Amino acid sequence: MHVPVLTKEVLEYLNIRPGAKIIDATISGGGHTRAILERFDDVRVLGIEWDPELLKQFKLKVESEKFKGRIILVNDSYVNLKKIVEEHDFQPDGILFDLGLSSWHYEESGRGFSFKRNEILDMRFNPQVQAESAADVVNKYSEDDLEELISSLGEEQFAGSIAKNIVKARKVKPIIMTDDLVKAVGEAVPEWYKHRKIHFATKTFQALRVKVNDEMNNVRRGLEAAIDVLNPGGRLVVISFQGLEDKIVKNIFREKAKEGKVKFVVKGTVRPSWEETKTNPRARSAKMKIIEKI
Questions:
Q1: 228 lies in the same domain as 205
Q2: 33 and 77: one domain?
């Protein structure tokens, strides 16, 4: 089961007032949205989820609960936030982005997000709309392009040798399954690299997922749209898990603060408590940043 991170902090820092309209731009398993609706009985939430299967599952859950009439669910990308707000006449008093991947994607989607399961290398959040899968990237990109994306999006120190071995392996047979990719990565890195706390294929898998879903550009576009649509005095809360995402969040917030459009609610970063990381180890890399629109 997906456990949302920093839920207590989300409820606190969104500064939710009576009758507020809140957008959960990354509804995922719906944990944050459910917490908001349970705590505030006159608040409405508009939830956005790009993955149609994940949204369908959450919709089935909430339809049997007490939140009818207080929640709107939209299958779309948060990059289209302005259009979504206009279509639903939903001017938000607070917006939440939880940029972490749902545990459902790793454990149940069957789309090759995890190196722990032998599945087809897909990694698309919305296969109905997105054309390019991870298998396409791995089998069609040049060695130079693979090295660049594994290095820049995965921050992988052995990107060069991994890219070289991927190209070598795919000449023998296409790399279609996650196990094929793990094998190609494992053959390209030193033995000591395979015995660290972090699995040796983690950064390569991350790089492919970020590339396939254009995550870095989408985060930038989504946050800029969120600041535009937010009501004055409304807050934007962003939880990130990767250093690259966190850097984008930090830079956009600083830029908008310099322009006088927003102010920081908390200087720096809010992190999970020790108690939370003990009960939910996935929370350990979470970083929260909060701004308020002026």
A1: no
A2: yes
Spatial separation of the C-alpha atoms in residues 35 and 12, rounded to whole Å: 12
Q: Strand, helix or coil at 14?
A: coil
Q: Which helix (H) or strand (E) holds 292?
A: strand 287-293
Q: Which helix (H) or strand (E) holds 238?
A: strand 235-240
Per the structure, how many domains does the chain have?
A: 2
Can you tell me the distance from the alpha carbon of 75 to that of 202, in angstroms, rounded to the nearest whole number? 28
> How long, in residues, is the chain?
294
**185 falls within a domain:** yes
Same domain, 172 and 228: no
Residues 286 and 198 in one domain: no
User: In whole angstroms, what is the distance from residue 133 CA to residue 209 CA?
Assistant: 9
Structure token pair of residue 187: 């053959």
Digitized pLDDT (tens) for each residue of the chain, 294 residues in all? 567 899 999 999 999 999 999 999 999 888 999 999 999 999 999 999 999 999 998 888 776 677 878 999 999 999 999 999 999 999 999 999 999 888 889 999 999 999 999 999 999 999 999 999 999 999 999 999 999 999 999 999 999 999 999 999 999 999 999 999 999 999 999 999 999 999 999 999 999 999 999 999 999 999 999 999 999 999 999 999 999 999 999 999 999 999 999 999 998 999 999 999 999 888 889 999 999 999
Q: What Cα–Cα distance (Å) separates residue 63 from each residue in 13, 59, 73, 83, 178?
A: 28, 6, 11, 25, 35
Domain range spanning residue 63? 7-105+215-293
